[in-house]
Amino acid sequence: QVQLVESGGGLVQPGGSLRLSCAASGFTFSMYTMSWYRRAPGKGRDMVAIISGDSGRTNYADSVKGRFTISRDNTKNTVYLQMNSLKPEDTAVYYCNAHRWGINEYDYWGQGTQVTVSS
Fold first, then answer.
1. For the segment 53-64, what is each residue's pLDDT rounded down to a tens digit?
2. What is the 3-state secondary structure (H, E, C) of the chain?
3. CB 95 within 8 Å of CB 36
């Protein structure tokens, strides 16, 4: 049974930091590209950061470049999102995604974790 379980969300003041974690199980973690997405109130779900299976490649949305860092530990089947210098506009539900391309594509989502940036 595939599971992606996010944790680490919460309420933080502007300028603060949070570290999100996503623990994966039920599939071969290292073979999947992992991503973080977010959905702000009243908006669609947008990609925030993405990391390749071997951690060799990362990419970020322009809005978070220089502030957020995605990483993964394939020995722990976990992907992380370190978020620094948080802004009110970073308020959203953050989702973990696992994707594998190929003849058969696989796509899994976590349940999301709320991040609220407010004073």
1. 887 899 999 999
2. CCEEEEECCEEECCCCCEEEEEEEECCCHHHCEEEEEEECCCCCEEEEEEECCCCCCEEECCCCCCCEEEEEECCCCEEEEEECCCCHHHCEEEEEEEEECCCCCEEEECCCEEEEECC
3. yes
- 88 phi-psi bin (left φ>0, alpha ψ -120 to 50, beta other): alpha
pLDDT in tens, 60-114: 999 999 999 999 999 999 999 999 999 999 999 999 999 998 888 999 999 999 9
The predicted-structure confidence for 19-62, as pLDDT tens digits, reads as follows: 999 999 999 999 999 999 999 999 999 999 999 988 789 999 99
* Alpha-carbon dihedral sign for residues 60, 64, 65, 68: negative
